[in-house]
Amino acid sequence: xxxxxxxxxxxxxxxxxxxxxxxxxxxxxxxxxxxxxxxxxxxxxxxxxxxxxxxxxxxxxxxxxxxxxxxxxxxxxxxxxxxxxxxxxxxxxxxxxxxxxxxxxxxxxxxxxxxxxxxxxxxxxxxxxxxxxxxxxxxxxxxxxxxxxxxxxxxxxxxxxxxxxxxxxxxxxxxxxxxxxxxxxxxxxxxxxxxxxxxxxxxxxxxxxxxxxxxxxxxxxxxxxxxxxxxxxxxxxxxxxxxxxxxxxxxxxxxxxxxxxxxxxxxxxxxxxxxxxxxxxxxxxxxxxxxxxxxxxxxxxxxxxxxxxxxxxxxxxxxxxxxxxxxxxxxxxxxxxxxxxxxxxxxxxxxxxxxxxxxxxxxxxxxxxxxxxxxxxxxxxxxxxxxxxxxxxxxxxxxxxxxxxxxxxxxxxx
Length: 414
Fold this sequence. Notes:
With 414 residues, the chain is α+β, with helices and mostly antiparallel strands. The protein contains 13 helices and twelve strands. It folds into three domains: 2-56 and 272-412, no CATH class; 70-101 and 232-260, no CATH class; 107-230, no CATH class. It has helices spanning 7-19, 21-56, 88-98, 133-136, 149-153, 163-169, 211-217, 237-251, 267-310, 312-320, 325-362, 377-403, 407-412, and strands at 63-68, 86-87, 102-117, 120-129, 141-144, 158-162, 180-183, 186-194, 206-210, 223-224, 226-231, 262-266. Strands 1, 3, 4, 5, 6, 7, 8, 9, 11 and 12 form a ten-stranded mixed sheet that branches. The radius of gyration is 34 Å and the shape is elongated.
């Protein structure tokens, strides 16, 4: 390690760089561009990933939504175009048959009603829900709480409203918790206020009331408008969707090949498409970045080979004066590592600056395309160490060429 602190070695490196300034700059740019590209591409990929996560927000991604439509095929005496509804028996059947695969199951009923508080009013969606909905689509509560099991059991006339609904129905500064609003001319106690979702929001501004209360007030009997099913992460949500539909067709006497009787939206499948895209993006990023990095390192090796060729006479003189092959080899390798290190550090710095600019231009606001485009420090460290190792290895080639130079032949070179 002594040669690292040998002033003569560094003076020779400085002299070589000063003598070939343009060549040295071009060499550094080649390596700099490689690690710069790797940092920027990795940061952009991370920004896209964060953007996708923001879109899905706190929604349980391995979910499927199922509702009924008109039948498209006559079956067992029923005509084409028959309407029918989901019911509580369907819920129990699905839980019984797929209980080991289903994590959450939330039946839902919805309608639209006029909401009134004092002299202020507005027409909004009203949804009858189970407490489990908050596990599937987490609400960011500003005040109070969400519906719980006690509300369900007691048929409580309570509601959870959105922040926009609160602003429209209440005076500024009024704490809404404990206040009453009228829904369909019936008083409901406000128990919670939730803020806007940062990701997927299928409900918009909705007043949530207990499912049991909705059923009693609106006299829906056992009918269910639609359901949300969240599967365990190890479950194939696409296959589960198909199996659930087949079971529901059997329960409602629908032809097994009828494709219109049940409508569905598979969030898990859509999320998988984004995940696959991100995986491909990351693979492409690493491939392009590393390939560019290696190309830059080889450029250093080529430049050093030319340098060794130009310094043949100088190397011959040093050998004649007693320089050992080891010292010559160390000198060439040190120059290779030095150029690689400088280029790597500059590439990381410039890459970080570009990511900062990208974040400032495209990473701000609710519609940001790239959210927090950054690269983890360990990844940068590994890339930098890899660059140094490659620089050392590539330096071995010109170093070997320098050591095989015979002093007498070198001195004869013109």
